[in-house]
Amino acid sequence: MSAAPEILSLGEALEALASPDSNERFSTATGAPLLVVDWPGAGEGGDDARLDVAVERLSSLACVTAVVARATGPAELGPLRDAFDVCVSDGAELARVRGTVATHPMASTTFVQLLRGSQSRTVEEGLVAESLAYSALQGGPEFLRWRAARARKVVPPDPDEGPVRATRADATLRIELNRPDRHNALSRSLRDALCEALDVALHDPSVEAIEVMGRGPSFCSGGDLDEFGDSPDPVTAHLVRTTRSPARGFARLAERLRVRVHGACLGAGVELPAFAARVTASSDARFGLPELLLGLVPGAGGTVSLPRRIGRQATAKLALMGGTIGAAEALELGLIDAIEN
Fold first, then answer.
1. Mind listing the pLDDT tens digit for each residue in 127-138?
2. Containing domain of residue 326, as a range?
């Protein structure tokens, strides 16, 4: 079966999506991992009986769907535009999305499929779905290729005072990530200690506020890459991930939670804070979701927290475009609530 054209016009897309074979035509499994549609300008498009069908089909495709929206377009097409996985504004942004999808089509497709239902699930349902997808990809060729190409190092011991420092002053619990030499990368030991610290607040209603920050040059640089793939098997990893989950604690404590971030805020370093009622950042903070380039999806709750904070399409764009954004752009996006130095 031939792959879909590079970019479809709106009319071509409506016709193709109405076809009974659209799920075959646009699928990573059949060699077409990306569907791109050029959005119409004013006066184009209009009422079409196929719009509802297109919206439904876009939610079921096993590929990434992108719309190049250089113009607002007619108001009646709003639901269709919202149905795409990612919205880019120009060819340069599209090229970055295309690059990610081309090199990691399985992870990219799995990621957008997770996001499509993210806001209709409860937090707990979302965390389970995310973990199942993450675990499946751990056994896939893209992650195994990344792992085989990377030289693994021995993970150094944690500081003597532990990977997390928790102190209490009156009704405030202060939690500080404490692996500064590793940019507070989320290791198993840090994960477990963080869960224990959060449990204090979960069990003690007299804790009225929880402040979370990171010691050293970064808040959190994401998962510790030298531990990736060390679990006995993906199923065991899934069960552990859904048993000891900092994301669950962040979500349950959200209204009492204040997070201050700085430096590298990657992977878990952006996914966990996104649950909090208030997130402030220093001007040097940079944010990103690099997991797709490892052949994985965000696994620290990001497919649950980020769509609720910034929306599904913005979450997809942050990951699919790769790279990082700075504090000013994060503030504009709604990823953080203020910049404080």
1. 999 999 999 999
2. 124-339
